[in-house]
Design goal:
Strand content: 15-25%
Number of helices: 1
Order of helices and strands: HEEE
Strand order of the largest sheet: 1-2-3
Oligomer: single chain
Low-confidence stretches: 1-13
Structural class: alpha+beta
Mean pLDDT: 79
Length: 73
Amino acid sequence: MARRAGAAAAAPRLHGRRAAELEEHRARAVSRGATVVDDQSADPEEALYVFTDPAGHPFCIFVAEGADDPTAW
């Protein structure tokens, strides 16, 4: 997958707990057999990882705005 236009390498928007949460979920997915196919964790617009599961199905992990309040989304 190609990086979106305008998403040049920049300082990550996620800081502290949110960045740690994204990394925790990345590590968990990899420990369960997922393969990172696109690392957009430094994208200031929408930090995320794109993976494939062991069968080759793609999926994404990101930390949503309002993640601290599940009723917000």
